[in-house]
From TrEMBL:
Protein family: Belongs to the BUD31 (G10) family.
Pfam families: BUD31
A Gene Ontology biological process term: mRNA splicing, via spliceosome
Coiled coil residues, start to end: none
Cellular localization per UniProt: Nucleus
Entry keyword Nucleus: yes
Top-level taxonomy: Eukaryota, Fungi, Dikarya, Basidiomycota, Agaricomycotina
Name the UniProt record assigns to this protein: G10 protein
InterPro entries in UniProt: BUD31
GO CC terms in record: spliceosomal complex
UniProt entry keywords in alphabetical sequence: Nucleus
Length: 145
């Protein structure tokens, strides 16, 4: 996850002031999550809040542009360029079958226990035994679908 650049070289496009307060709230949540103590947690568990905040910030920008049409193309491109949203994750959300993907690591086959498989959170709920709770080891999400 890239850091958000704080020193802007160019003035943001018009419309940024409308969403700036929401993006500042996400930045504040991110700082709190990064400074949260992680004693007693597994290494991956300490990253879960950061992954969730990054996901929700990217989903907010994606929804504003593609669903609500609340921002312009110029502002959307600027937000992606400045690192406010994950462009690769948004590119996957636009493809069929990946609309609810929680993170990009869940579809990478190299980090999985079994060669050539995907994350356990990508398994549909209907194919699991009743009462089984599945949690992704990468991002902590329960189910992508």
């Amino acid at each position: 996850m890239p850091k958000i650049r704080t020193s802007r070289t160019k003035e943001p496009p018009s419309g940024f002031e409308d969403i700036e307060s929401v993006l500042e709230d996400y930045a504040k949540q991110m700082r709190d999550a990064e400074n949260e103590p992680h004693e007693g947690k597994r290494r991956t568990e300490s990253l879960w809040p950061i992954m969730r905040i990054s996901h929700s910030r990217s989903r907010y920008i994606y929804d504003l542009y593609y669903r609500q049409e609340g921002i312009t193309k110029k502002l959307y491109d600027w937000l992606l360029k400045e690192g406010y949203a994950d462009a690769n994750l948004i590119a996957k959300w636009k493809k069929t079958g990946y609309e609810k993907l929680c993170c990009l690591r869940c579809i990478q086959t190299r980090d999985m226990n079994y060669q050539g498989s995907t994350c356990v959170c990508r398994v549909p709920k209907g194919q699991l035994r009743p009462g089984t709770v599945v949690e992704c080891t990468h991002c902590g999400e329960r189910y992508c679908d």
